[in-house]
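Researcher: Here's the sequence for the chain we discussed earlier.
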Amino acid sequence: MSKRIITTIVALMFFIPVVLAGSWILELVLAAIAIIALSELHKMKGIGLFSSESIFAYLGTGLIVFSNRVNPILEKHFTNIQNIDIIFGVILVLLIATVFSKNEYNFDDAAVSVLGMIYIGVGFLSFVEVRSIDIHLLMLILLVVWSTDSGAYLIGSKFGKRKLAPTISPNKSIEGSIGGTASALIVALLYTSFYSFNTSPVIMLLFMGLLSIAGQLGDLIESALKRHFNVKDSGKLLPGHGGMLDRFDSLIFVMTLAQIINIS
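Model: Thanks. This is the structure I predict for it:
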């Protein structure tokens, strides 16, 4: 537990200033995290981390995260080409690789690469989008996700009896899930009492409650993924936490949903 706490403190000391700085600094860090997360997924699937297919998938992920930077450049120099066209080109290359790799990179591998590239890339692009809309909204979402995680763990470990998803994540309980969302709502209520959003407080609280549930779903999705590949953690980069995919699983799902709903 002490190792986990130390890692969290050090990570926050680095990550929070990056979030506050925004712009290129944030996008570069998020792109790096996204690529590392995809590499962890590739490792779980048994795809070579430095294979040509992985490198193309990393490129696609980075292009997604940098969409807001790449599109204006393309529009300036290439009238009929957008970033999405290049990303689709990357997907086609990955599919072509299944033909010429002598089955070392098969269709299942390509499916993991493409889905991982889109899911992770869009999640971190959504992080950038929310930051550009309102930094207070982003900070509130981060606090909601983190308080959900902490509340679910603390309440679940003490009062948890009924399993939430026993076949996927047997340590999670219904009581913990409810406690996590309750914790998130308390944090959201405190935050909105100090900062007013354009949306009504009631709607904002409902939105944060939805994102709290979404965060738990994102965590369960990654748990299902790890169970499918029969691994405990996605990686070992963060002592006490596992890998980048372990640490950002909830945020990837939450930020994507937040961007879709677009409440500020």
